[in-house]
Predict the structure.
Amino acid sequence: MELRRVHFDEVRRNLVSVQLLTRLGTEHGMTPAACLRDTGLDQAALSHPETEITGSQELQVVRNLAAGLAHLPGIGLDAGLRYHLAAYGIWGFALVSSPTYRSAAEVAVRYLDLSYAFVSFRIEVHGKDFVIVLDDAGIPADVRQFLVERDFAAWVNAAREMLPGGLRVRGLQFRFPRPDYAERFATLCGVEPRFGAPRNAIVLDLVDVEAPMPQGNALTSRALQEQCHRLLDRRRARSGIAGQVRDRLLHSVNRFPTIGTVASALNLGPRSLRRRLEEEGTSYRVLTDEVRRILAEELLTSGRLKLEEVSERLGYAEPASFTHAFKRWTGVSPANYRKAHLEKGSS
């Protein structure tokens, strides 16, 4: 199971994570202004947690802390341990109410853009191994290790809060070299990690992740997932030139127009449109993928079209390409998505 992470600025975030990071910085001698440098935020903004910001703004806070607290070993781990499920709102409640840890992990991946993670989580099952991959490929190099450590430690916290005592970790590996504070990783999850590995990964036992969770409730979980879906749609809402492009794509029938056609309709040249979209943190390709996903979900759940017909209506040459794209967007196959929707409706 995999997830296509959107551009950091495509989905807006609330301020809770920035509040936690700023508090960490000030406790270690940084001023609030130093923590928020070059973000466009000030200390007064932190008193309004309902305010939404861009991922790039939070990334700049991370960059400020990673530079200002570089002398503190394992500061990324310290940051991650400040994140508890309650800090994530609906997303956190959806996880803890899942019937099993496996289903919680699937929900987490599907709605990961409602969390504060910068790594892209991916789930793999190999025999008896349930593997959680922490893909850091899209993270800037200067903050990559800090964020892998932060998001790993936040995962440890979440697992402990969902299951008493946490989950038994069978294996752990990271891409970065062995740090001087390597023993802290073993303290957190009970195993000695392998450093300098090809990827970042947590290996669990499939039997453990399929056991019932103490607070699991299937009906509550479904209701919270619906709220996650609506919240994610709202945070993805477009404005500006991106919103105009998205609206034109949504109203296109069967075939998407070229960027030249859309640019002409907006009285722009293709190069100008690309530049304007880039300034808004997106691209024509990202927008077409976004609209294809919306239309695909509607076609899969509101009608009786075969997968081949859905694929054709969305402009894919063959169903396999559509299936691959849909799994990249949602973490599940079109067939499983339709099946889950039908089961939810019947319940």
